[in-house]
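Let's sit down with a protein and look at its sequence and fold side by side. Once you have written the record down, we can walk along the chain together.
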Amino acid sequence: MHKPRSIPLPASASGTRPRRARVRVVSPAHVLPISWLSRSALFFRCCAFLGGLLAVCVVLILLGTEEANWAPPFRDSTLVFTRDELQRIWRWEIDSGHHPSSAKIPEQIGFTTTILNPALPPAKAHTLVSSFTPPHGPVITTARGIGPQRTYHVAQNRSPGLDTTAYPPRPISGSIADLDIILDHCNYVNGKVSHVFLLFSGPKSECSQFVRDCLEFLRTGAGLDNGQRVRRGNLDKVKYIYMEQGSNAEDLHFQHIIAPLVPAAYPVGRYGPNAGLQKKKGFQWEPPLGLPPSQRHTLDTTPCDSQNPRLFHMYWAGPFDDKPYTSLLSFLFTQNLGLQLENGHELACRPQFWVWINPYPAAATPPASTLMDMYQSLKMNPWAAPFLHPRFKGIIKFKLWNTTEQLDSIPELRDEWRSMDTLFNSGGISIKIPGPESPRLASGDGITDRLGSKSEASYDRLSVILSDVARFIVTHRFGGIYVDADTLFLRDWEEMWGWKGAFAYRWSYHNFYNTAVLRLNKGSALGSFLFRTALKNGFDFHPGSVTRYLKDAYLSPLLTQLPDALFDPAWLNTEGLQHERPPHPFFTTTPAHQAAAPLVTGFDGFFKGAFSYHFHNSWWRPFDPARHWPDLGPRFAEGEHAARAAAANFDTGPDDWADELDDDKVDLDWATVLKRTFESYIRGERSNIPALSSSPPSSGPMASLNYFAVPQRGNAYPEKARLTNGLPTYSSAVQEKMHRHTRSMSWTVPVSVSIPGVRTRRLRLFMPNPTRMQQFGLSRFGRRRGPLIICLLLIASLCTFFSFARRFGPEEKQWSPNFGESSTLVFGREDIQRIWKWEIASGHYPSKREIPEQVGLTTPPLNPALAPRKVPTIPSRFRPPPGPVATTTRGDGPRRVYLDIHSQPPSVAYPPRPVPGSVADLDIIMENCDFSQNKYVRDCLEVLRLGAGLDNGNHLRRGKMDEWRYIYMEQDRENFTEPAQISLANVIAPRPAESAGIQDPNAGLTKKRGVDWEPILPLRPTLQHIPYSSLPSPCDPENPRLFHMFWTGPFTDKPYLALLSFLFTQNLGLHLKEDPELDVCRPEFWLWINPGPAASVPNPSALTDMYEQLKTNPWAAPFLHPRFKDVIKFKLWNTTDQLDGIPELKDEWRELRETLFNSGGHIINVPADRSKSAEASTTVESDNSTDTAAAPKSSSTGSDKPDEDDMLNRTGSKSSSSYDRLSVILSDMARFVLCHRFGGIYLDADTIFLRDWEELWGWQGAFAYRWSRLEKYNTAVLRMNKNSALGSFLFRTALKNGLDFHPMTVSRYTKDAHLEGLLLRLPDALFDSAWLNTEVFQRERPPQPYFTEFADFFNTPTQNSAAPQALGFEGFFRGAYSYHFHNFWWKPFDPSRNWPDLGPKFSAGERAARAAAIPDADPEEWVDRVVDDRRDLDWATVLKRTFEAYVRGEQPNMYGEWLQW
């Protein structure tokens, strides 16, 4: 059989010496006689060929595309009706107004006369000539519209001053959704992909409509984005809701093409009346259907149409549990039921919900007393009893399901259904039910005995099959819409009731129906057809079988197949489709990095725009594992107690039940959030979607469709455990041999490390080979000296590396090794104690945190900003100086009353403004947010939201929240008695005196080398701490509410957006008429502008030039409007004047002018002619400052024309390569100068306000925030008190350390002097919530949104870019005070509309900026069209457009206040 052969090897394999390889091949001499000469072999070959051909046919049948309409003769048809009957069905449905669609009638129906459609408006239509031949004569494929005209509209709700503007409007009564338009925008059919292609390459959807875009279309057209609309332009293309108005049939201009379709060469007699239709084999044509008279379509003159009742149906088998409970709650929450009206007031036509209960197994025969038993069990069931309340009696009705009675009530079935072999047929798979004589399983868990699905292993298949039949029965018998019990309502269905046609939705990417949502008309011809056809096809009502019935009969257009985006928007994602642009939320599994969204966004962030959500079974998984009971308030407390007792441990009694936050889940899933949202509406704690509730406010949020699912691999099989024995593995023996021989010879070895977020690839790094280094050392230097020499070489290499990194490293990194840092301290202990005492006595230390023991206070100072308390102090181990050391302050201030903040009616839609004079307890914030204590930013933001009432309407946590209340009010001193004297033993740890002799008062302090101790620091008299309620006026002159910002160069969109966010969030009184008498102290924003380079020569006309430039700059001009004159002020920056205004600097700073630009020890030298600007400056008087403006100056290259890209000539950072480093260094110093001179808070220009800062103004201590993971300051936000002791210390210390104000250096100043407590280092979660994530920290539980780099703000990753439009401003780090986007000065916020868009009042500036942004466009052609906008809007774009909409008057600010001009 095998013959040896010799084959030459290639040269690359054999080298220079030719070699041959011996292989064994099959000899033809042995094959031919067996294959061809034997009869048996020939027979087997023929059988194999036929079997292969049969297999190919089977594969084509199973995997062939249904869109190709290919049906092989051996796949039996389901059709049992003639063409005449099909035409009767079509005519009946059209005449009854059940086909209000412009979809074509299939040519196979064979209409030869015009069909008049009373539900379609008159329009011009052309009938296509079909290539289909039978029957003889012309074929009509379109209907002639003679119905009412349609007026399309976009729903809006504009009522300034009312909180209903935050809610979407109720749909107009009688409005109709045009499903044809929805199909154009949402249909997945455009992405046809063959099943064979899907089998090998996975599903693709490059050409299909994305669910994300469909949801945006649905939101916009229905006004569900009210208050968050960021699209600009004409919205005609998103109108899909219309009203019917009269008829215009007289003016109709209709034409159609009539052409003979039967070729003249073919005799007419060859074609019968049913030619082209494929009848089911073995069956005769069915007799004519007994159809009632058609229902005439007319305009609704009565509130409810008896032929089209508004009934929702649901089928449920077994005990009532949390699944139908939550579905009914969602029905109450979303539909227009009139529950906001008092009893006795009824709506004109409100929908009802009929729950069909089958209390026995599907195959069981119910006894006569079933109805009474059902109601008794419902009354005792805590999940069902609330819906028996009289308030819901006309809305929710429980019906008893009886299969026999229901089947007998269908005329098409009653005489024949008993002759069926089985009623349980699903997709051709029949389940035989044993007769009464057949023994049942003893376990009682047989398939016929199951009542509901208690687990995945005991799935109640029979009830599922029976529900497939039940949905068609109840809709055909009573009319209405059937929804599965695993369906949650997400919006009002008013528009869907208006569309009188039947519909279901698409089964994911397959082209057949899913009847989880099914609309059929009462007693319709379509329903009669389906029942008779199913009766002849094994009584199969599986959605796939129903698809075949309609397809074979060409009736599919009568049951519109809607996109699954309307009712099941997560389905495509869960099957691997559209992952590149998913909707929000994105369901595949439930990744932890997305679990912040439910709590942040609430109900509004859950597939907004969809009509419902189908979570696909999972009956055994609870919605709320931590609170698995109905939580509907005192009215239903009895049922809650019963369910709670069943869910709780039996060892605990009702007296032990307490709602504690610690008992709740840390991260709430979407299922939990939705359940609690609906429950809070019933409890009266929040309104439903449209703000029509008369009850008080508050509550809303996410999980996965895996809604409850377990993470799976891409192939849908569970992940297998991978075993390892720790030994290396190789793909072949050759690889192992090469690895063994080369490992010891190479100086480097490859190391494979995983790439975060990329599971399929690994990063290969080359590291030094320790084995090779050891061999080299032993062979060259011996066993003793070799390791020593290698260690010395490694130490020398590390030192060299650090030296080069410090010398040549990039300035932006500002890296400085700690072991090389020297002390910066220039003040002795006495001055440090004076600084502490001054700040505490002035009320600038309202904290309970301990004073560093190194300060050496011997008595606890009285703290007028701290309430009296008793706190024992743990004795300190620190010894010097001798004697007692106090580490706490003695509270002697007003008592604190912590507030429970939430909105009050009628303003329930927006969060409440902070109470004037309220104070944020930063100690509590530190306890919940400090990164050093392993606190997550996600959890910190939740505390910030809840404590300030920013989760209003989405309040989902249940239980006491005393630990999360961080905002308090100070009571007047006369309201409480003086504190009792506290024994010093409680606060002071006694120190034994050390050996006699002279003691060093500065023992334990490390002074800066080469510098003497500074003389006594002159301090002004201490201030008096006065509570807000005791102030004579709302504003405290010693604590002015000033925001400062420094800007260099031309005004751009960056400070523009910072100012807009200031107007949008702060309490400025802009919602009141001009010159109001405010009872609050409104802050001011001082923008300090340095028009020229940081080291430029001053210009005498700088102030005039600055205002001229601002007036002509379209980004700045709007803020010069008189409406903002009291809240936004532009100031001219003059370095000389500012430094001279600091008493601690004015006499000495000129000596350091050559090192004025010092950042972290890196000094940028400025030429002498530049530095002389300090002394040659000409000042121009202004309010509080003068400025140096840019004048022509020589470039560093010596040319007369300045080089704008030279470091000394830069005015702003135009790109990452031309970073204006000098202005950044100058701003580091400017922030301390401004805060010390004028008081207030400094903000970097790359900061955006996210909420009111009232509580932070109340905390009168100084603060900055943390530099990401490092225990250093970031002074992008800096609060300092006016002329404070801390400020004096910083300036004197900086003066002795080269005037270095880099945040890292400032951190050294306070740390060396033990003053860090006076400049509180707040968590970055408050002002820079994304920073830790961008540095690969806390990515397992990130906040919402999730940024892996700061650029995500400007270029949101496509997979996450559905969130900005769906969530808007409220979904952006909700709870944080501000967001710092870290430079990116060169990236526009809104690339497609890079101009200020503030409405007609500022149109001149907009036109100028628009002309600069699109110079090639003619101004006459400037038209805002939505189609010209970017498809996915980034976070930066959404925030900019949100703030601009407030100024335009199109929406209120974040607190529901409308701008009044």
The first strand starts at residue 2 and ends at 8. The mean pLDDT is 79. The two ends are 100 Å apart (CA to CA). The chain is about 25% helix and 10% strand.
